[in-house]
Amino acid sequence: MALVEVHDVYKTYSKDSQAVQVFAGVNLEIESGEYLALMGPSGSGKSTLLNMLAGLDQPDSGTVVVEGVDLTQLKARQLADFRANNIGFIFQFYNLLPVLTAAQNVELPLLLTSLSKSERNERVRIALGVVGLVDRSDHFPRQLSGGEQQRVGIARAIVSDPTLILADEPTGDLDAKSADEILALLGELNKEHGKTILMVTHDAHAAETAHDTIHLDKGVFHR
Amino acid sequence: MKYARLVWSNLMRSKRRTVLTLASVAVAFFLFATLASVLTTLASVTETGSESRLSTRNAIGITFDMPQSYHERLRGTPGVREATHVSWFGAVYVDPKDFFAQFAIDPVVYFDMYPEVLVPEDQLRAFREERTAAIVGRKLMERFGWRLGQTVTLQGTIWPGDWEFTIRGVYEAEDPSFGEETFYFHFDYLYELSNQTARHGWYILELEDPDQAGAVSARVDAMFENSTAPTKTETERAFQAGFVTMWGNVGFLVRAIGTAVFFAILLIAANTMMMAARERTGEVAVLKTLGFRDGQLASLVIVEALLISLLGGFLGLMGAKLMFESSDPLASFLPGFSVAIGTIGAGLAIAALLGLVAGAVPAWQSARLSVVEALRHVG
């Protein structure tokens, strides 16, 4: 059984009171341990797919099953719990809370668990170690470079040890050197830590680092 | 507790705004404590007085005096054990702003009729033996730094001239609402130096049986019904309440102003909370993406609002209590004025309500926020 199963999904949203159909009966399967790049023109539905897989958005019809759980059957509260336990989300613009230090930002998902303070601190230290930022743990986002902020974002995404990592253009706001470091880090997470990764990108170079690339065009997936 | 850091960090996000909001809430609750204490003190003043005493005044009004001949007739009225008289003096000591009440009394009888007013026996004896002697409340002594045996000069307003008195006694009141800021002296001294123009202001009657208060009142008023100065006799408490109503409908004014201030502050606090929440729309979306539930995020917003309103409220209420305890600027007008524990409790309850109401709208907005929409705006 695949880790992700998108079956016969339809999705329409309204824009300026016009109905825009994004998906019309699409299907997709992602096996556990895969590292996939998702490419496609703007408005093709890449972010919509990511949001559906994270339980942030629901299809009009069809099913979205992640780790054997049909997300279309869950209520808002259950979806929140599902995200906390199963999904790591990496944003293009890092989206760190500016009032918290790097360590406190990484700790955020762990506040939703029953872990003790010392256990949370240990997990945060490990996650920051994976991204190579232990020595910057007390720095605030404004004191970090773009690449460092994204690495904190990645540490936050992996700290609760989720199976599936969804990355929405993680290198879109970075210079080439920082982007390469982030891509190397994602590759390491996949290879060394067995994380399944779906990365939305417009960058062909970034897509090349993944195992495979899915092209989304006019509501159809092409591998 | 594990969310404390998050709440604290959000409060410290804009220190200036947090401090200003705290200050505005503190000022509002300082005003609340002051106004509420005026009301409770006024209420306690109207409860001052013994059940066994009546006041007889001119039926036209308290400012109209009474014939001195009434004194003996009142003393002989069935049901009346003793009667004494009181006259308003209305003089100034140095500065007219330093107001305090002065009454000309019968030195022999007055303090015997007020056992709740405590004067040392030797001081009372010295007061009775000297025509220019005065008995002064303890707080008034402290206020002007007077000492026993000191001669003080008051400038008369109703009866112009310099009036010299020698302080021979200091009284303390068992009941704080009686006040310790009054100045008593001999009526005979006033009568003589006013060229016999001073009159008795009103009379105090001590009853043989408090249950007969209604009957005695009716008897007294009937006795003077067809005289040149008809009387109005009532219980001492009703008489005090009459004094309070001379100020107008103070309670209504205080409540109206207090309510207006409260709602103004409520709007300020609610607006500040909403501004703070609106600034964090993107962050709320991120937290939801991480798995925070709607209720958790709403609770965080409510806790922030509660912290500001409760802390601001506490500072304002305690500030008022400490200020009025260390210096009592209203003592002359409102004896026993203080911020009661009940007022602080009520203030804190209102502060909690303020926090809940001010936090409700942004909390609801946080809970209802569409993550997809919000993330689209923050990228």
Spell out the key features of this protein.
heterodimer, A: 223 residues, alpha/beta, 6-stranded mixed β-sheet, 4-stranded antiparallel β-sheet, 7 helices, 10 strands, B: 379 residues, alpha+beta, 10-stranded mixed β-sheet, 14 helices, 53% helix, elongated
What does this structure look like?
- The complex is a heterodimer of chains A (223) and B (379).
- Chain A has helices spanning 46-53, 76-86, 102-107, 117-130, 146-158, 176-193, 204-208, and strands at 4-15, 18-30, 35-39, 61-66, 69-70, 87-90, 164-168, 196-200, 212-217, 220-222.
- In chain A, the strands form 2 sheets. Chain A has a 6-stranded mixed sheet with strand order 6-7-8-3-9-10. In chain A, strands 2-1-4-5 form a 4-stranded antiparallel sheet, covered by helices on one side.
- The longest helix of chain A is centred in the C-terminal third of the chain and has 18 residues, at 176-193.
- The radius of gyration of chain A is 17 Å and the shape is globular.
- Chain A is of the alpha/beta class.
- Chain B is 53% helix and 16% strand.
- Chain B is elongated and about 90 Å long.
- By secondary structure, chain B is α+β, with helices and mostly antiparallel strands.
- In chain B, strands 1, 2, 3, 4, 5, 6, 7, 8, 9 and 10 form a 10-stranded mixed sheet that branches.
- Chain B contains 14 helices and 10 strands.
- Classes of the chains: A alpha/beta (223), B alpha+beta (379).
- Chain A binds chain B through residues 51, 54, 56-57, 76-77, 80-85, 87, 89, 91-93, 95, 97-100, 104, 108-109, 111-112, 117, 120, 156, and chain B through 2-3, 5-6, 9-10, 12-13, 282-283, 286-296, 371-372, 375, 378-379.
Give the secondary structure arrangement, pairings included.
The complex is a heterodimer of chains A (223) and B (379).
Chain A: E1 4-15, E2 18-30, E3 35-39, H1 46-53, E4 61-66, E5 69-70, H2 76-86, E6 87-90, H3 102-107, H4 117-130, H5 146-158, E7 164-168, H6 176-193, E8 196-200, H7 204-208, E9 212-217, E10 220-222
Parallel strand pairs in A: 3-8, 3-9, 6-7, 7-8
Antiparallel strand pairs in A: 1-2, 1-4, 4-5, 9-10
Helix pairs in contact in A: 4-5, 5-6
Chain B: H1 4-11, H2 15-45, E1 53-58, H3 70-75, E2 80-88, E3 101-105, H4 110-113, E4 117-118, H5 121-129, E5 133-137, H6 138-144, E6 151-156, E7 161-173, E8 182-186, H7 187-193, E9 202-207, H8 213-223, E10 231-235, H9 236-245, H10 250-279, H11 281-290, H12 294-326, H13 341-368, H14 371-378
Parallel strand pairs in B: 3-8, 5-7
Antiparallel strand pairs in B: 1-9, 1-10, 2-3, 2-9, 4-7, 5-8, 6-7
Helix pairs in contact in B: 1-12, 2-10, 2-12, 2-13, 10-12, 10-13, 11-14, 12-13
